[in-house]
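User: Please predict the structure of the protein below. I'd like the answer in structure-token form so I can feed it into my own downstream comparison script.

Assistant: Understood. Taking the following sequence of 379 residues as input:
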Amino acid sequence: MRQHLGAIQPAFDHPPARLHMCNTPLNNVGSVIGTHLFNSNVTLYMPGASGTTDSEKAWQVLTGKVQNVVGGWKVSRGKVPLKWFLGDIRENIIREGKLAAVSCEPLMTHSAFALLATGTLVLNLTKDDYETCGLNGSKSKVSQNRYVVQLDLADPSFKPSSKAYQRALWCFENTFSHAVEFVFSHPSTVSLELPPEAALASTPVSLNITTFSNIHVPTLADLPTLSSKDLIGEETVLSYMEYFGLLHIAQEDDDSNRLNVADNPDPYVCIYSPPDECLSGSVMRIRINADLLAAELMIELMKVIEEVLEEFKLSWLALQSQTYTSSPVAWRDQERSTGLTYSHCGEAGYLALYHPNTSGTADSAEGPRCLIYQIGDGL
């Protein structure tokens, strides 16, 4: 019996991880994925197609479409003072929702800062920093001795003549006057103008593609029959989550890969077993090499997956993401915990498993669906 992950808690004072699963029509997926604002370790999985489909062509089409999406984005890293967010960039980039940014210092030990695509600047502060910053905030709901301040930089009333602006400016000139290292995610058409000392390094988003052959490939034959309610703890669903977890860390040509059809480990050494409904086949894994991907890019990838799933009549496609390590914001705009386990192991994110929903059950008339498995701490 698999243990419910939500019941696993570290020894120190820390709220439990929260799990959520849903098996939803595709028109609802964007509203879920869009709540995960800061993404990293993004990976797509595509199975070798059945005998009626050209696997190589399907893989080429998916790779090309993904490359087109990520080619329109850049990831930049540089050191800027918080005052920089109050300058010209606020008018022509932040207010238009073209920039997402997260500070890079470990969340457990430092104050953390995040700029949401909505234009809200989130300050997750240690007690010492909060007591000296001069800004009004609220006590953290998930972590002791921390406070949260939010500044809506996109608010038309937040302008140099306003008291709120002047208070923030004073804070950023006197309390937080030092430069903070940020990672930025933005469309490639956006040019960030940073101070010379920021040492800005911009890199295009690239792909790393690996194909695994002769491995167990789930058919998901039993998945569409599952209800979209009460999925947590469902053995069938958790077996797929374990499968994609192993596929995420698998190395090419690794003889010890537990997913290999020829693998037969001693049950006292490895208790893993693949999902019940599997065939021998191949899977392509596409890793997107970028420190930070904004939710807008993830929604673009979602649309690509839906197009390829429909065009090639695939049995499934999957999209996996983790919340950026030092992000103070988890999914659903909620505050993220500062616990060691979560801030270093990335225990926040999701896996979206798209399937055609052709089981013949009552809900199959709704068309393809997506099983979304989400985990987040401090919610």
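That's the full token string. The first helix runs from residue 29 to 33.
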